[in-house]
Design brief:
globular, binds ligand F0G, single chain, 13 strands, six-stranded mixed β-sheet, 16 helices, four-stranded parallel β-sheet, alpha/beta, 422 residues
Amino acid sequence: MPSKFRCIRCGREYEPGSIFRCECGGLLEVVHEPMKWDRHIVDSRLCPMGAPYSSGVWRYKELIHPSLAANMIVTRPEGNTNIYNRKSVSDFAGVANLTMKHEGENPTGSFKDRGMTVAISEAIRQKAKAVACASTGNTSASMAAYAAQAGLKGIVFIPEGEISYGKLSQALAYGSKVVQVPGSFDDAMRIVQEACKDLGLYLLNSINPWRIEGQKTIIFELLHQRSWEPPDWIVVPAGNLGNTSAFGKALTELVELGWIERVPRIASIQADGAAPFYNMWKSGKGSLESIKPETVATAIKIGNPVSWEKAIIVIRETDGVVEAVSDAEIMEAKAVVDASGVGCEPASAASVAGVRKLVSKGVIKADENVVCVLTGNLLKDSDATIGYHTGKLNGITPLRQNAPSRIDAASMSASLRRILSQ
Ligand code: F0G
């Protein structure tokens, strides 16, 4: 028997529809068919283990920090992020079998929490008093939250005026000291390394290998969710190149363990205006030339990525590719991911834009199995989203604009009808 609506005042019942008040004016509530509910069903649906092993990072503890004492682990917990399949996104990208693993579902809204829980736990093991990072925003938000939880002082260095307000507000709210550096992320990265040396701060950027250990779990969890069946491609936005490096390391280890037999190809996607890794890969040169970065995707606005030497090995060993996409392509892909109800921040959408471009070049085939990693939550950068939909994002024509409308109070239903027909 399907559920019904029942009036809380007179008890009259209705088939559920779009009437939300009884004829008598009473409020309605949903009533279900009485049944004997077996609690074991609910119990079996809940992950039976408590912290730290309920974390999608520490579930794989033996593969990331085997010797760490459990009482040193600082966890929210993190991970356990979902995988989405949306026809509109597949159609846009040109691949029937496309899924998105949403790392924006981590506690502070980005994949950074996976590496941060491991590196901050190591900071505790090393009896650090203060931790520091440079950031385009997400690392600072994550570090500030974990430093607060661990009772450590946190100092973040950010490029002045270059990070989104959502991320800046997180770092301030969680209580880290925020130092604005006049210049780019790359300047902030240089300064934080000097500060750590001079002042004895523990560095929590992805140059710290413990961060990479945590970020490996994106791959462990993804393959676990797929019953250890690898896709053909894993596509990831690329900035400082920590993720690209971590993904390759994770895949190599899974092959060594015998948990997977085949390694997916990795595609790292940069923004056109911040593409030093793409330039290097395309030119076939053996070293990276830094550039002055410029892109709407501030999270990946990086001109001198720290981990390029690890990342290039990963691209070679996975028969991977590096691609670059324009800001317009990133924002269009974001509009499609957003309108599918999944949503992500601009940098994350570079992965979907990258798939579309690689399909158009014939590198990714339409019948291949592709996983895009969405790295950050939609709410991280609302300025970019609103700028796009109101047509105020510099140099970008919003092809999928959904601008807010104004209602005319004098002819309300006529103006509503007009809005709905658009
Ligand atoms: N996507 C988002 C949302 C990011 O915040 C970052 C990096 C990347 C992609 C790139 O990942 O560096 O592993 O290649 N953000 C860093 C930060 C740099 O400071 O928050 P990567």
